[in-house]
Amino acid sequence: ETGVTQTPRHLVMGMTNKKSLKCEQHLGHNAMYWYKQSAKKPLELMFVYSLEERVENNSVPSRFSPECPNSSHLFLHLHTLQPEDSALYLCASSQDQTSGHTGELFFGEGSRLTVL
Amino acid sequence: QQQVKQSPQSLIVQKGGISIINCAYENTAFDYFPWYQQFPGKGPALLIAIRPDVSEKKEGRFTISFNKSAKQFSLHIMDSQPGDSATYFCAARGYQGAQKLVFGQGTRLTINP
Fold this sequence. Notes:
Chain A is mainly β and about 120 residues long.
């Protein structure tokens, strides 16, 4: 496996379900991100983890709960979602720019979430 | 002030033509301006990027033009090919450390054969 891998690729859930999205990066990066992509809207940054600490939380509703157990894995736990939460959820990773890297984001292919 | 405005939303260009996508920003603290390319069913991937100390960067058929005083930058795709059909996002970064990119709305580019 190379790059950033997201599972599942597609998820359909009811509003009362609890599910989780998983992301794994094989690039040795030290930062990981969750983005939400909705039609005709800019990519929305949800959460950022740097060195396994959450450094950004962009006013995301508490029904989305991230978890970063180590620098290679990132989860997004979903609970009591609303139909408007249906979107493509993208995971990304990068290497911190302060170490001389460009900080380029590497994205996974996304998890397409549909909330009924 | 954190927004990046991108236009047009969609663009159709004939094969061999020049595709031009424009972006504008307000925050003068932005210090890095990448363009990402996204094919259907795939995540975005970095295409080309520029820093504000240069006015142009070229990589193959792809060129970024940067106008610092106007706070605008654009992507030019020369000799556009059907394989360039994708959604393109401009972005801007505000600070060092963990990457915090502000993205434009995206442009769906279609190259007709």
